Every structure is written in C-alpha cells, then in structure tokens.
C-alpha cells in the first residue's frame, strides 16, 4: 500500500504534483478560475464584504496563506480564527461575511462547530474539504473539494498544498469578480498556479540535500522557524510538522518579533530555519538572520533563486527554483515537509503515527 515508500508520509509528499493537478485543473475554464460546478455564484462573491477563515492545525495554517493572498489582491478584510477559539468567542458575523472552513477530514469537531455557529449567525459558508460527503461538506452552503486522495499519515502534507491551491483559485476568482484584477491578470495568475505544479515536482528532487541537513538537526532540543509575511505563515506550518513527528520542540516566529523576547533562547548551535523568499521584506529578514547568527545559531536559509547569498550568512542554503513571490509557499511547503520527515527518520521514530495524535479529531 505504501507503493515502495518507507512511510505513507513520504508517499504523500510525492503525490503532491498529482493532487495539485487534480484540484486545479477541473476549476479552470478558458484560462479563468470557475466555480459554476460548485454553485458559487458571482453574486455571492460580489456581496461578500468580509471573510473569516476558520480551521485547526495545518488547515488553519493554509488559511494564514490564504488571508495574505486574498487581502493583497482584493483589499477585502480576511481574518483567520482557530476553530476551537472561534466557537466560544461570540464572533462578530453577519450576512455579508463569508465564513470559509478548511478541513482535510471534514470531521474535525471544532471546525464543524465553528461552521454551525457561522450558519446560526446568518453568514454564508464555504468549506474547503478533502473527504467527500463528510460532515463539514454536507453542512456547508458551498463546498470546494480538494482532490488529494486519501491521506493516511497523521502529519498532513498533500492535503495542505491542495488547500493552498483551492485558496489561490478562490482568491483569483474573487478578485476578478470584484473587479480588482483584470481578466488578463486572472489568466496570468492561473498560468503561474499551473506552473507551480512542475515547480513542486522539481522540489521533490531536493530530498538528498535535505536528508543531509536533517542529520545535523536530529540532535537538537529546540529549533526556531522565522520568516515574514507568507514566510511567517509557512514557518507556522514548518514548525507544527517538525514537532509533531520529531518531538523536537520548535517555535515559529515572525522574524521581527524575535527581539521582543525569544532571541534570549538563541544560543550556540540552536538551529534556526529562516525563510526569506519574499523580495519586499528580504533585507529585513536577512538582518534578523544576522542577529541570530551572531548569537551562535545554526542557520538553514531558504530563499528564492534570484538572490545572492553570502556563504557567511548561513550553514546551509536551500534555494527554491525560480518563481513569482506569491507562489513560493508551494515549494517551501515541500522543503519544510522534507525537513520534518527526514529529521524524524534520522531519530528513528514512527513517522506515520506520532505518539498521542489521531488523524481525525472528532472530539473537542
Ligand atoms: C498536522 C495535522 C493537524 C490537522 C488538524 C485539522 O499535520 O494534520 O493539525 O491539520 O487536526 O484536521 P482536518 O484538516 O482534518 O480538519
């Protein structure tokens, strides 16, 4: 069943190009994102004045990426709420708020409760769900299915990247319908999204490089992920993935927030995985890299292809293939999944079934 792979997680990492293709392709008509199959009308999108994304864990982290993209393209406010908090927070909702729930299983109790609360408060609900006919899918007004196929490993990988792709499709359609981007621009974005599938396939070949780096991470007690903007959203995901399967304590920090406390934890040989893929904040993140470096951190730096990285800046440099800044999350996700996976393997742990965790959390 594992198709020659040692663990389901590795198999599922490798299934990402196909999962992305299956999720993206059916939603493209004449080069534009199209949700008529899903019944998501332009009128609904036109009436949406605000979006609340709610989910748990990795699915919530996909929401963090979605927020940045949707707000950037449309200037319409988006908030991302942890479902277990949202459901008890007496949230402000109305009929012009679209509540997007994201869930691989479609059965997460807190996300389902958040969805029900949204409906009770008169908001329209759209769910991004992988499992057909699941509770969240059945109870939502609209469903945008991801087509990752079954995900067996507890640590979510392909479900996350297809959730990103669904959010990107949504953002492009939403921006187009709201007349924030032209038809030509929407088509250009779709082409770039399709190109991303090949980029993800290419990044799968980084396994040997990352396996070697993981050998140097396996004995760490604490580890930090830092980044800004989209890179911070990815840092959150990289951190949960690493800690859930390697049991190494890790934290994701917005790079600029380090000096407000956390930098006191950076001492000799503490690994810092720094994501610096966004040109607009590149110099800022690099200055944070220098700060942790000067305190002895072991730095693994992940950048785009278009920057020159001084060898003195980091211990390891992982360079993503050339791509537009908005699309780096797909490639960075694979790198972070590999870091978690190979570090867990190096620690001789049961990658697919980490202790205390269940694949689907149907209790509060
Ligand atoms: C982490 C992980 C969890 C899930 C979370 C939500 O790798 O898998 O954080 O993302 O429990 O699950 P779903 O998406 O099924 O609602």
From TrEMBL:
Q: Does the keyword Repeat apply?
A: yes
Query: Which keywords does UniProt give here?
Result: Aminotransferase, Cytoplasm, Glutamine amidotransferase, Repeat, Transferase
Q: Decide whether keyword Nucleotide-binding is in the record.
A: no
User: What is one process in the GO biological process aspect for this record?
Assistant: protein N-linked glycosylation
Residue ranges of every copy of the SIS domain listed in the record: 40-180, 213-354
Q: Which GO terms describe its cellular component?
A: cytosol
Which residue positions are annotated as catalytic? 359
MF (Gene Ontology): carbohydrate derivative binding; glutamine-fructose-6-phosphate transaminase (isomerizing) activity
* UniProt signal peptide: none
Q: What reaction(s) does this enzyme catalyze?
A: D-fructose 6-phosphate + L-glutamine = D-glucosamine 6-phosphate + L-glutamate
- What EC number(s) are associated with this protein in UniProt? 2.6.1.16
What is the enzyme's class at the highest EC level?
A: transferase
Describe the function of this protein.
Catalyzes the first step in hexosamine metabolism, converting fructose-6P into glucosamine-6P using glutamine as a nitrogen source.
Q: Know the name of this protein?
A: Glutamine--fructose-6-phosphate aminotransferase [isomerizing]
Which species?
Answer: Anaeromicropila populeti
Q: Which residues of the full protein are shown?
A: 243 to 606 of 606
